[in-house]
Automatic annotation (TrEMBL):
Keyword annotations: Lyase, Metal-binding
Gene3D superfamilies registered for this protein in UniProt: Aldolase class I
Superkingdom of origin organism: Bacteria
CDD domains referenced in this protein's UniProt entry, alphabetically: DRE_TIM_HMGL (cd07938)
Full protein name: Hydroxymethylglutaryl-CoA lyase
Gene Ontology biological process: ketone body biosynthetic process; L-leucine catabolic process
Species this chain originates from: Hymenobacter properus
Residue span, Pyruvate carboxyltransferase domain: 1-270
Gene Ontology MF annotations: hydroxymethylglutaryl-CoA lyase activity; metal ion binding
Keyword Transmembrane set for record: no
Similarity remark: Belongs to the HMG-CoA lyase family.
């Protein structure tokens, strides 16, 4: 079981800039919890995501001496990937590839073919630099733009990623449109069809729907889940203001009910929870 904590996703849409020292202290607390991976920042245009303009400074302040947690940085293009790849502390580069052409253009200012070409180049870059590319299939469960969506379209994108050699693919519920009825069939079909790929679930949810979504993915064989403490953040394009990231505490509770060990230091977990409140206060 792999739990990926995503403070980057929780922070990126906040209007008020979180001071670098505050970000760094929070991330250092998260590094003590024992998550598999910390999605800590992004190397993207500061005009696009001003909240994360200090990612390089934050990275310099992280204490990686007593943690098993690996670092993941989000990139939006090859230039960002080249910058991130220069940092030996980073294990994973994450790229949002959308099955929605409209969202791809909004998110990375590219067409889908251009984005796929970037994926190929990023994968090669990661291979040369001892890193692993994580592709987030955004709008993986539907989208609000009217673009075509079907399980077959998601499967075709996955086939193309497999052909490029991509080893980690996270199906992403960018605006909270997923349900158990869409989650279960996709994971049930893809996981056995592509055993060389590690599939993850990056689910956004309202407070009342998280359990059915997690259960559907877990029961279909998914063993990699993204979350954010407190369920903070989420896509600003979501129509429902209650739609946020999957709350990590809910993931942990669900796994405990299943008798699945997480290996987390729960004292450190609760300390990070307390720290998260002032970080996100007023947002």
């Amino acid at each position: 079981m792999k739990l990926i904590e995503c403070p980057r996703d929780a922070m990126q849409g906040l209007h008020d800039f979180i001071p670098t020292a505050t970000k760094t202290a929070y991330l250092n607390a998260l590094l003590q919890v024992g998550f598999d991976t910390l999605d800590f920042g992004s190397f993207v245009s500061p005009k696009a995501i001003p909240q994360l303009r200090d990612t390089a400074e934050v990275l310099a302040g992280l204490d990686l001496t007593n943690t098993k947690t690996k670092l993941l940085a989000i990139v939006a293009n090859l230039r960002g990937a080249e910058t991130a790849a220069q940092h030996p502390e980073i294990s994973y580069l994450g790229f949002p590839l959308s099955v929605s052409e409209t969202f791809q253009r909004r998110n990375t200012n590219q067409s889908t073919p251009e984005a796929l070409a970037d994926v190929a180049a990023m994968h090669a870059l990661c291979e040369r630099n001892g890193k692993t590319l994580v592709v987030y299939l955004s709008m993986g469960f539907g989208n609000p733009y009217g673009d075509a969506w079907s399980p077959e379209i998601v499967t075709d994108f996955t086939r193309q990623l497999a052909a490029l050699g991509v080893r980690i693919v996270a199906l992403s519920d960018t605006v909270g449109t997923s349900s158990a009825a869409t989650i279960a069939p996709l994971f049930s079909a893809l996981i056995p069809a592509y055993p060389q790929i590690e599939f993850g679930a990056h689910l956004h949810t309202t407070p009342g729907t998280w359990r059915e979504k997690v259960a559907a993915a877990y029961e279909a064989g998914c063993r990699r889940f993204d979350g954010a403490l407190g369920g903070f953040g989420g896509c600003p394009m979501a129509a429902d203001e209650l739609t946020g990231n999957m709350a990590t505490e809910n993931l942990v509770a669900f796994l405990a009910e299943q008798g699945v060990p997480t290996g987390l230091n729960m004292a450190a977990f609760h300390e990070a929870q307390l720290l998260s409140q002032p970080v996100f206060a007023g947002h």
